[in-house]
Amino acid sequence: MKLTLLGNCIHHPVLLLVILACAGIAPASGAGGRWDVLQRSIGVSAMHMQLLHNDRVIIFDRTDFGLSNLSLPDGRCRRNPRERVVPMDCTAHSAEYDVASNTFRPLFVFTDTWCSSGTVAPDGTLVQTGGWNDGYRNVRTMAACEAGDDTCDWDETQDALAANRWYATNQILPDGRAFIVGGRRQFTYEFYPTADSSGASAISLPFLVQTKDPEENNLYPFVHLNIDGNLFIFAKNRAILFDYKKNKVVRTYPELAGGDPRNYPSSGSSVLLPLKPSPTEAEVLVCGGAPAGSYTSTKDGTFSSALVTCGRIKITDTAPAWVIETMPSPRVMGDMILLPNGAEVVIINGAMDGTAGWESAKTPAYSPVIYRPDHSPGDRFEEQSSTDIARLYHSSAVLLRDGRLLVGGSNPHIYYNFSNVQYPTELSLEAYSPEYLDPSNDALRPTIVDPSPNGAAVSVTYGASLTLQFAVPAARRARGGGGGSIGLVSVTMVAPSFTTHSFAMNQRLLLLDAVKTAALARASTYQTSVVMPATAALAPPGYYMVFVVNGHIPSEGIWVHIQ
What we know:
By secondary structure, this protein is mostly beta strands. The chain folds into 2 domains: 32-435, Methylamine Dehydrogenase, Chain H, CATH 2.130.10; 438-560, Immunoglobulin-like, CATH 2.60.40. Helices cover 4% and strands 34% of the residues. The chain is built from 4 helices and 43 strands. The protein is globular. 52% of the residues are buried. This is Galactose oxidase-like Early set domain-containing protein.
């Protein structure tokens, strides 16, 4: 993209921002981010996580790990004769984490949520589906609790699904329903809620039969909503574009080069890359995984090196083809999270060898990797600062509204196990702060001042305008120095993910079209108007975080509710 000069400063014609060079401030680079332990133990292991629009994260593992380290309140106990481990259990297997106060409280789940899936409904309620044993076909909902309400909890509906959904994937649709696909020995999909009163029904998807091998390697398929409203579904090493309304495969994509599996238990990860304003194309990135046969080999004590490659494909091209890229190091069981600046993806957690499964990896991947999709090939990956906590099987990560990543979980054992093992069950929560949160960038960080970041979510409609006022401290220096210049800012809109088993379901980032930016009378304060996505195929109804971005440095987000 062409750059033009304003005086001694470079001006980018699309991303209108405070010209930093004129302010005498250079963004920090290569810092690698920072790790902070938030809680040494929350009592449960964060196998599944979802941020809600009240800035609380719902966390849960499984009921049959045994007794957790978090007691249920007021002497409450779970008495379940179908429970296979502890039929009388007075400990919690779910928790609500309050980001602002760095506190947590126990939640009550009755049936087993092991290896389940979820979406957030348009009204902001977490809808969790499936699990194991007595939870195979159950649906559980968790509303976003009102401020000060420490009594709200899970609601559960028995046998609300048509098929057992264990290791399935959910994707929110433009009409707000959840598309639920796959699971162990389930080669079908269904919708929740159903479109009418006829009840739940499972519909055959032969693609899942075609991609199954002796190790399975097609569980937790990667599903992304394409900009045309169809679903991109990836399993093992193949992908289709699926018209769920007509139950029809509308496109079959080439096999990902090399043929090695990328889905559970050879767990790689995938993201739909950030969508440009009024997008005409969409790209998917798949990274990591394990060579064919790796899962079986772990049972004999052989831990093969994980895959070091990523595949990237424009799913909207008339003749799509995978482009292969190489990460700095191999990775399996990694999580891929879109960062709010719209320019970076972080690959975090996981191992460098083995696969998902009990005791099936030996070498943790301690260092996150940043991927910058708009950089030139060969210059897209950068390794970041490492943690000292292993995040292996059953770990997870989600983006928070302040731009940090909440990281938790890791239990590669069949039960909770805290001693005499190399990698004990992990009950801690960490925050990973990417380099853009380094204090050296504080003067460049935008702050949204209207609407208030701490206020209620802003209601918006498709195609409507949203006006944002924001301040940038460095702009005051630029003005005072006589060389400052202000132009357009970039604004991003991010759907928070339901993350489990190396896939952040429903994750989505859109760059919004900024139509007007102007300086206000207050020093260092500006106003910009952006256009909301035009259709629900681009942004399904629900709650999103909106960020103002100065260069690559995002503000704290605000919540918006599009419907």
